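Morning. Coffee machine broken again, so started the prediction first thing and wrote up yesterday's gels while waiting. Chain of 284 residues, entered below exactly as on the submission form.
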Amino acid sequence: MNCFLVDYENVHANGLNGISGLSEEDTVIIFYSEKAETMTFGLHRRLNESKAQISFQRVSTGGKNALDFQLCTYLGYLICQNAQSLAAYYIVSGDSDYEALTVYWKRHNVNVSLIPEIAAFSAPVKSPPESAKEPSAPVLKPSEQTTAPTGDLSTQLKAVLPAKYHAQIPVIADIIRRCKTRQNVHTELMRTFHQGADTSVPKEIYQSVKPLVPGEAEYLQTELKAVLAEKYHPHIYAIVGIIQRYKTKQEIHVELQKAFHEGADNRVPSEIYQSIKPLLTDKA
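Came back before lunch.
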């Protein structure tokens, strides 16, 4: 779960860029005050269409930093409520004073990050506290490795595959190079190595080579970095979410317009769409 605490008084609507790319497991809490308690129809529509769980916290009393204090207090409450989960927390604000919180919670093995807009987040993996770690990790056999070995692909495959499959390395390497994502590699291995109704061989091969193949989201992130202008790289996570969620180019184009338009100016979403269009060949 990713939880976003938005300092709306500080970031206004720009801080909610990327909300369209969130999932049902994500939570967005918008803190606002009388200084900033209005929103455009476009933003209201984006909030309604987001899959994330969205709530509002109105700060009605207090001095200059009342919103900051209440946001910090609420963050502590959430961390306590979700102590047993792998939740990651993001304070969406341009106020660098929140950095003190990120440093404090890092010491307690809680992922708290400060980001200028939702689209800028990249979910970290929470490390377990020292007390929860095993005293020593088991030594893994090559076929049980969970991280990819170094070297060229043939060398990597030789390291992770059981010896009985080494003669098939050229074929397996060709499948990985052509198919690129885990889902496609899995499909092609099943097609190539099944023996009648017996799929145990391609399944064993796939589990061995899986660490060498990026997931779809990882692959898309790499491809997007190559085609997008650098100024759009902070939005890559949100764009990946849009591409994965929608089945047609038209739906993706419409969602980009909703997520990245600036008033009546649609140049930004149009430029993003034209850049990523070559990657959408599998979309209707």
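The first strand starts at residue 2 and ends at 7. Going to sketch it on the whiteboard this afternoon.
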